[in-house]
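Progress report, Aim 2. The chain analyzed during this reporting quarter is listed below.
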Amino acid sequence: MITKKKLGIVLFCGRKDCKYSDKIKDYLKRNSEKLYCFKSKKRGERLSNKLTRIKFDYIFSFRSLCIIRNNVLKKTGINAINFHPGPPEYRGIGCVNYALYENTKSYGCTAHVIDKKIDSGKIINVKKFKIDINDTIESVLSKTYRLMFRQAMFIIKKIINNKDIINIWIKKNNNIKWTKKIKNSNFLDKFYEIKKNDSKKIFLKKIRATYTKNYKPFIIIHNKKFILE
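Predicted structure tokens for the chain:
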């Protein structure tokens, strides 16, 4: 009788109310000796003290808003992997906003080893798709999450059969580098502001790169902030 291979002790960090996070969690539950799960719903959340004391074989982070601290990473036996919703050209947050503003022709997602710096670990795998002229933030993100899910499932399944595959991919993609630029939340907040003297071209670009159902650009007049509906 052939014993089915399993991943060992796994921590999965996903996003609350994310169908892809749920699917990955279910798959990991069936293919891990022991699965711990943490789903974030707001930026800056931290793992519970209980989780920080466990020694994991693997950590997988998918759309997670939780930053995994170095003390947890040091105890991870084999690999800690993040699936970043953007290509290596865009680090930090607001990646899709800047990509649309810059009229980037393609976008995608990056699987990488998690280290103590944000979006800087060794690159495992990059997947891309073309951006259409009619694409919006919502449509690009929808394509990104769908592609990122397929990327995550592909990588996890390969790891189950060959735990050395990650090192092989890292060597293969050694020529792919992260950009040196990284944007934080303060930069993104300022990016949402439309200036009174912006040209029509910049105005339309900014609308496309910031306007969504939940988040909208704004303009400040006489120290008053007006949201553009």
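The two ends are 63 Å apart (CA to CA). Residues 15 and 40 are 5 Å apart (CA to CA). These observations will guide the mutagenesis work planned for the next reporting period.
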